[in-house]
Design a protein that fits this description.
There is one protein chain. The chain is built from 4 helices and 2 strands. It has a two-stranded antiparallel sheet. It is globular and about 40 Å long. It is mainly alpha-helical.
Amino acid sequence: LAKLDELVQVTREASLGDRYLDTKGVAALLGFSYTYTRDKIVHKPGFPKASHLGGRWLRSDVLRWAKSGRA
């Protein structure tokens, strides 16, 4: 069952590609509320810097951060 869950996750990630996420997208990706993400998560040390687009993060950077155990 764990292998199936892993395969589903890899498939989802591949289909989404690397795109920019706003705060709402980061919250959904990480499973936190919008407010908590806006007020706490994006200000944590080590969280990826927002892009030049202002308030947007590369999905791959957010996933890398989350997988590093800092979420």
